[in-house]
Write a structure and sequence with these properties.
Elements lengths: L7 H18 L1 E7 L4 E5 L5 H16 L9 H27 L5 E2 L3 E5 L1 H18 L8 H5 L1
Antiparallel strand pairs: 1-2, 1-4, 3-4
Helix pairs in contact: 1-2, 1-4, 2-3, 3-4
Length: 147
């Protein structure tokens, strides 16, 4: 990891933001209409755009200042806000699926359900938020134990 020039906390935050970006490409909501097929929608729309803004904030915080050092005070606030936006956007999207979009079966024909991308983005944001808050410690590598 030293070859990349990133501090471990910045590198893990950047990886989690990348996972959240990939989750936006996956289905966030799936609609199936009995035997007539179905459709799905990715996270690029509605409250998923809040997740995209959060990903941008985390990426900006990782590239600010000296990459080899940990987050400074402003960078830590930006990362917390970014991961908070990722979690918040995903939770609001999930709530909207269950309240407005259904999240159930209508007359046995139409089924609306949250997709894999929504849960992947939610988990990536939650892990990133816990990492930024210090509740999850960055793992030590073998090279750190030798020094």
């Amino acid at each position: 990891m030293e070859n990349l020039g990133f501090h471990k906390s910045k590198l893990y935050s950047l990886i989690l933001a990348g996972v959240a970006l990939i989750s936006l490409l996956l289905p966030w909501v799936s609609v199936s209409a009995g035997g007539f097929g179905g459709a799905s929608k990715n996270g690029f729309g509605g409250w998923g755009l809040v997740v995209l803004i959060g990903i941008g904030a985390v990426a900006a915080a990782c590239f600010m200042g000296n990459k080899a050092l940990g987050f400074d005070d402003m960078g830590k606030k930006l990362v917390l806000g970014g991961f908070g936006a990722i979690v918040g956007g995903a939770v609001i999207y999930l709530i909207r699926i269950f309240t407005m979009g259904g999240g159930g079966t209508y007359g046995g024909l139409v089924k609306v359900s949250p997709g894999l991308g929504l849960f992947l983005g939610l988990v990536a944001g939650a892990i990133g938020l816990l990492l930024a808050l210090g509740k999850i410690k960055v793992p030590k590598s073998i090279d750190d134990k030798i020094k």
